[in-house]
Amino acid sequence: MLIEVVKSKIHRVKVTGADLNYIGSITIDEDLMEAANIIRGEKVQIVNNNNGERLETYAIPGTRGSGEITLNGAAARKVAVGDVLILITYAQMDFEIAKTFNPSLVFPNEETNLLT
């Protein structure tokens, strides 16, 4: 049996931009993506702590070391610059393997979005 479990989480990052005219996705500082084991194009669930919105899109790498978290396209309407987000990815795996799987959890600096 396969189950879906948390694979990666970037906890409490601030939105640095919202670009309605870009063609979809979330731009994430490449350092954060790497630390959380998230790859380009991977589906990401976005939880907005400020307004309760939840949405899904895909990740694209932003400038390394920039702290960038930009929602693009229609998703830009679901956030405001400064909102606090939790970014989550999931993976399907065998039930027994899932029991011992350890997700990549990242807790960046809440003011700068940079790794501490």
From TrEMBL:
InterPro entries noted in UniProt: Asp_de-COase-like_dom_sf, Asp_decarbox
Catalytic machinery residues: 25 (schiff-base intermediate with substrate), 58 (proton donor)
One Pfam family named in its UniProt record: Asp_decarbox
Name used for this protein in its record: Aspartate 1-decarboxylase
Required cofactor names: pyruvate
Catalytic activity, EC: 4.1.1.11
Superkingdom of origin organism: Bacteria
Residues the record lists as Pyruvic acid (Ser) modifications: 25
UniProt binding sites for substrate: 57, 73-75
Post-translational modification: Is synthesized initially as an inactive proenzyme, which is activated by self-cleavage at a specific serine bond to produce a beta-subunit with a hydroxyl group at its C-terminus and an alpha-subunit with a pyruvoyl group at its N-terminus.
Cofactor binding, per record: Binds 1 pyruvoyl group covalently per subunit.
Protein family (similarity comment): Belongs to the PanD family.
Record note on quaternary structure: Heterooctamer of four alpha and four beta subunits.
Organism: Arenibacter antarcticus
GO MF annotation, one: aspartate 1-decarboxylase activity
Lineage start: Bacteria, Pseudomonadati, Bacteroidota, Flavobacteriia, Flavobacteriales
Function: Catalyzes the pyruvoyl-dependent decarboxylation of aspartate to produce beta-alanine.
Gene: panD
NCBIfam families per the UniProt record, alphabetical: panD
Catalyses which reaction(s): L-aspartate + H(+) = beta-alanine + CO2
Places the protein is found: Cytoplasm
